[in-house]
Design a protein that fits this description.
about 525 residues; alpha+beta; Arc Repressor Mutant, subunit A; Rossmann fold; Serine Threonine Protein Phosphatase 5, Tetratricopeptide repeat; 19 helices; 12 strands; about 55% helix
């Protein structure tokens, strides 16, 4: 079930980004260094467009100072590889730049024809379509003249904040005065009083020159010397989330063909949060497309694996269970191979290992993800779900509560996962509260109602249990409890038996109460 990939065809050549190969039509492979390969792919993405030298230098060497000679050398490499066809394919516009003059088509290679990517394949460049991260510029906080305490605090805060932000999967953090149009900037000021330090922070969109987020912090003077994690971590999370949301709003307004690999992932993540079959299938297509245009983008493969795992756990699409498990495991392993320390990729691998019932490996990988650094709330949620299913619900509850608390605008799904962990931890009343929060905002999320059947039954809320049972029947009319495993995504047989028992009891109660109501209605009419 490996995904298809795209191969560029132009003039008498073909370029395969997955394998990192440029070849002639007769099959002869042509050597290109990584930057020259990236330059060619950038030109192929926009045939006929004129690229200036400065634009190419910024795209190929982001945040690195190089001379024009570096680009000249790449152009020379391309001309040498293209040989006699170079003059027809690659045009130089004097004092302006370069453009690809050949017609370009995209050939889709199906899995059966796909060759494995070689380990020597160059990493794709970070250009307009292959951008993997948003760029955040950090500037020192301003302080009033003579405010030494405020200046010392400001420096410590920015140092701690930088250490947190650089571990965000979707951020590239830089210092200085970079003013490229795709850059965000964090600015602010700190002011010390005898009892407290007041900090104002703002996020600016350099492209539009507008401030799109601001926050005020008040830190007691006694905490100024030792910044607590409870201050820095939520602040870093808020900045990361706000940049994600701003970039998502940008992506929604762009033509589909101009979306970058990261923007495709942002749109896919938004769809993935809806939890429905249609939204998940659409998200999966976006993640697959992101991974096709940038095969080295680990996040695209990790999210692709997550969508496949949801299709698996909910029984959608009628896919072969074993094949789908192996494909999810392959995608998540490849993501970890690309970025071994990424919390997102490790959490995807942990989830896929649990679906393959390799529980000890799944737990070990989930703990590795938690140790890898600052994690986005969604990544914490995935690790918490694995731990709850693997028999560690109390630890899962702690992690999931942290995930929900870190994002005041958290989507509803994490509340359903927290509810399930609370139920497994023996707290059905608290579980029911969390599940109700999810159901109120996400009325088409069947797993929430499946868990609610059990939580409401054990909490003695029979009417809620019957309502949840009917929602399950509405959303999944072919899902028959008892004839197929209920929550097979659980390690402990006693947990599976517990869910099955609750479902059967609620079904009997619902049938008896419905029959009794019908009989009473018939008697009244008589």
């Amino acid at each position: 079930m490996a995904e298809s990939r795209g191969i560029y065809r132009f003039d008498h050549f073909r370029l395969d980004p997955w394998r990192g190969v440029l070849a002639r039509d007769d099959g002869k492979e042509l050597h290109l260094r990584p930057k020259s390969f990236a330059l060619l792919q950038m030109l192929l993405d926009h045939p006929g467009r004129l690229f200036g030298r400065e634009e190419l230098l910024e795209a190929l060497w982001p945040d690195v100072i190089v001379t024009d000679d570096s680009l000249t050398q790449c152009i020379g490499d391309l001309r040498q590889a293209l040989g006699a066809r170079a003059a027809e394919v690659l045009r130089t516009v004097p004092r302006r730049g370069y453009r690809l003059s050949a017609e370009v088509s995209m050939e889709v290679v199906e899995p059966a024809a796909a060759e494995p990517r070689t380990s020597a394949a160059p990493a794709p460049r970070e250009g307009p379509l292959l951008a993997r991260r948003d760029t955040l510029q950090l500037q020192p906080l301003r302080t009033p003249p003579g405010d030494e305490a405020g200046a010392q605090f400001a420096q410590a805060l920015m140092s701690e904040l930088t250490a947190e932000l650089v571990r965000c999967d979707g951020l590239r953090v830089i210092a200085g005065t970079d003013t490229r149009p795709d850059t965000y900037r964090l600015i602010g000021e700190a002011r010390c009083t005898p009892t407290e330090i007041r900090v104002l922070l703002q996020l600016e969109d350099i492209r539009s020159g507008t401030v799109f987020w601001a926050d005020r912090l008040v830190v007691p003077a006694e905490q100024a010397a030792d910044l607590p994690d409870s201050l820095v971590m939520p602040l870093a999370t808020a900045i990361d989330l706000q940049i994600d949301r701003k970039s998502l709003r940008r992506a929604r307004l762009k033509p589909a063909e101009t979306l970058s690999a990261r923007e495709l992932c942002l749109l896919g993540r938004e769809l993935h949060q809806h939890g429905t079959e249609a939204a998940t299938v659409a998200a999966r297509e976006l993640f697959a497309r992101s991974g096709t245009i940038d095969p080295g983008y680990a996040a695209a493969h990790a999210w692709h694996a997550f969508t496949l795992m949801r299709v698996l756990t909910y029984g959608w699409d009628g896919q072969n269970l074993d094949e789908a498990r192996e494909e999810a495991l392959r995608l998540s392993r490849f993501a970890v191979e690309l970025e071994p320390e990424s919390a997102l990729c490790l959490s995807a691998l942990a989830f896929s290992l649990s679906l393959c019932e390799r529980w000890d490996e799944a737990l070990e990988t989930a703990h590795a993800a938690l140790r890898s650094g600052r994690m986005a709330p969604g990544t914490r949620t995935a690790c918490g779900e694995v731990m709850a299913a693997a028999g560690q619900p109390k630890e899962a509850v702690r992690i999931l509560r942290e995930a929900v608390s870190l994002d005041s605008h958290a989507p509803p799904r994490p509340h359903a996962i927290l509810g399930r962990a609370l139920l497994l931890a023996g707290k059905p009343e608290e579980a029911l509260d969390a599940l109700r929060r999810c159901a109120a905002r996400l009325s088409d999320y069947a797993p929430c109602f499946r868990t609610m059947v059990v939580a409401a039954y054990e909490a003695g809320a029979i009417d809620d249990a019957r309502m949840a049972l009917r929602e399950v029947a509405r959303l999944q009319p072919n899902w028959i409890p008892g004839e197929q495993p209920i929550f097979w995504f659980l390690r402990q047989p006693r947990d599976i038996e517990r869910f099955e028992t609750a479902f059967r009891a609620v079904q009997r109660l619902d049938a008896a109460m419905t029959t009794g109501r019908l009989l009473n209605s018939g008697t009244t009419r008589s």
